[in-house]
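Weekly modeling sync, notes
Attendees: S.R. (lead), two postdocs, one rotation student

Agenda item 3: backlog of single-chain predictions. S.R. asked that every request posted to the team notebook include the full sequence so nobody has to chase files. The rotation student volunteered to paste the first one in as an example of the format we agreed on. Action items at the bottom.

Example entry:
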Amino acid sequence: IRVAEVDYQDARRQTRTGEKRKKETKEEIEDLEEAKRDHLINSYKLWWMCIHIIYEIKHSRSEAERFQAANQTLGYMRQLLMEQLDRRFVMGFTLLCDQLSVMLCDRSGVVMTSGVIDIHKASCNPQKLIQLIAGFSIMTPEQLGWDTSMKIYRFHSNEDPAHPDVKPSYEVATQFQDQLQVNQSRYTIHWVIDVEEAGNTEQYVTVSTISAIRFAEICSRASIVFEVIKFKERRDPKA
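Predicted structure, as returned to the notebook:
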């Protein structure tokens, strides 16, 4: 009987230990999955920041597909304008089999080609598509719709005052994605903004984003309110 009781107690202890290990393993897996989710969210935000143009390609050219392609492209453009605070307008195109449509989206609405361009017709031929893609590839950031008066500023404790870390958002996203964290949303990223004042350009750096609620609205002024200080006074504790 004593042996049986000892075996029973040992079995209970082993069961409790096994359950504890299972719980710890489950928590470790959940932590790992959460870290992976955070990494994916981080990458998602970063890559939305560096997209230049939007396009949608489909094999079919039916009316339903044309409507769906245009709707999807406009949805992506809207998302782009929401994610990129330094974007004035976005260009894109849809290609349904051999039918090409080009569009431009800004805060006042959308304009697009009145009819489709058949790239196989003698009057157009595939050269039109080649010209379009080549044109996008050689456009300047300003021509692509970026607001070049806005750049991201990343502070470093050992920063050289003569060479601050100021870069366009799409360069920061593609080259320094390991240094932009998930919690750096539109409310926490610091922007350096060039402002024309009496014929001169003054640089300001955003301390915080007070309001960006209306920025998500497409057909509006897209008002966004920053708290700023002069960039040259960024190291002054009294600024």
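Discussion: group reviewed the output briefly. The chain has four helices and ten strands.
Action items: rotation student to repeat for the remaining queue; S.R. to check formatting next week.
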